[in-house]
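Archive entry. Fields below.
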Amino acid sequence: MIGQRKLLSKINSFTIDTFPRSSLLIAEKGMGKHTLVKYINDHIIKLPLHDITEIISSEVIDQIYRNPNPGIYLINLSEMTEKEQNIMLKFIEEPLNNSFIILLAESQHMVLETIINRCTVFEFENYTKDELKTFIYNKDDAELLLTVVRSPGKLLTTNTKNIKDIIDICEKIVSKIGQANYANTLSITRKINFKDSFDKFDFEIFMEALNYTLFTTYLKTDDKIVLSMYNLTRDQRKQLIDKRINKEIFFNNYLTKLWKVARGI
Amino acid sequence: MDNKQLKERIKTNTLSDSPLVLIYEDVPFICKQYINQIAKNKNLEKINIDKLSDIPNNDELFDTKDSFLYVYQTDKFDEDIPEDVTNLIVICKQATSKNPQIEQVKINKLLNWQIEDYVKARVPGLTEPQIKWLCEVSKYNIYRLEKECDKLSIFSKDLQQILFNQMNSENVYCDLNSLTIFNFITAIVNKDYRIMNEVLENIRWIDIEATGVVTLLLKQFKTLIDVVFSATWNNTLSCSEKQFYYFKHNMLGLYTKDQLVEIYEFLTSLDYKLKSGYIANDILIDYILINVLKF
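PREDICTED_STRUCTURE:
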């Protein structure tokens, strides 16, 4: 595992007897939560790993209690509702003998307070540029890419080849949206990949790039409208952590708001 | 011969065996009623044919031609009827005058009061308001009404009233309503309060999901935005060229540009509001209506 020295040293201080029965790993998508779970299992716990995220329900938990098998139960909270999280409270509080529960989340805000209180929380550190560079194949655009992408997972799994084009279009949006026609503004949606159109721009990288462009433009121009656009973008990005939302509809809503702010409405 | 004369001849059983062409305006329901009565009066067996050549010749073995009434239905009738053919009735929407010697009768479109009268005759046990309600809920569709009449008419006059009330309380008539989610969406976009009211009154019986309403409204308003904000059609727009000019001619003026922006912003915010629990699914339709119609 690259980076995360402090976190790894904390984890390495545990043995199978001292490792917390219920733990919560918090980090943004692509930061290496699953890699860390594998590391914990390979080096400390060494038991079968069961990912029960997709099947979690009261019945499944009862069944696990009836037929307890030693192992690690992995649950990803990112796509779970409050109701589903409540189902797990008892499971977390009274773990089975010889079993461990590891929960994954992208943000602390998305996890119930009652769950956080019952778990040992491990938070990831930000990766340094040098650490992230080891994940980039095309070193030419490395500097530009690292201004907007900060997780190894994103660098490895998404189409980051068109980062220059993404930055170009973001610059155009920032400088021209105030004069653009509303229908044309909404047509930006067609350039973004929300599902499987991998030839288009990756949505999350696009939002990061737009945020970055707005920030740098404000630093250069000191324009209050650009600052408002930046604040709007920063606030809207927080909503994106919720995996249940329809990104395309969300993006249209964001573009409408951005268009209004840019025109001073 | 006109409609009245035809009716009279059927009543008095004085209709000749010569071929007859019945031209209907709306639906062939009346034509078929007449044909049934003619077959009954003349004691003929009714046979539907696909083409005129299906009528057997007179010199065929086991000549049974005289015992059948041949019914030929087509949209546009422009064929020659052979001279020796008898007991043939053609039902069509349009007929050319290729056979000037053959009598053509135009059957007028059924008026609402005639349909109500028909129901009254079939189900005398129902009151006037009940008949009117049944006709309205069936959109004066004579075939639907015929089916409902068939069900009730097998009972005596006294029982018809009781059965009608019983069936109504069990929502047997709920599916007679032809309104759909698309009528609702069109009504909202066009601000057609009459249809909207009708849908809302019957919403329990119409297959309308709040999330479906959001999706369709998003699509409709996106098209409207493309039309309002674009001078001419181009292939990057979300609608076809035909749709574009239809909207341009029929929908402009319903909403200002600012209103469209506000409505679209509201509609695109609903997905997050729903999924984050800010708004409950069961009040979503009311919430949409209030927020869209306030403009």
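CURATOR_NOTE: Chain A touches chain B through 21 residues (CB under 8 Å).
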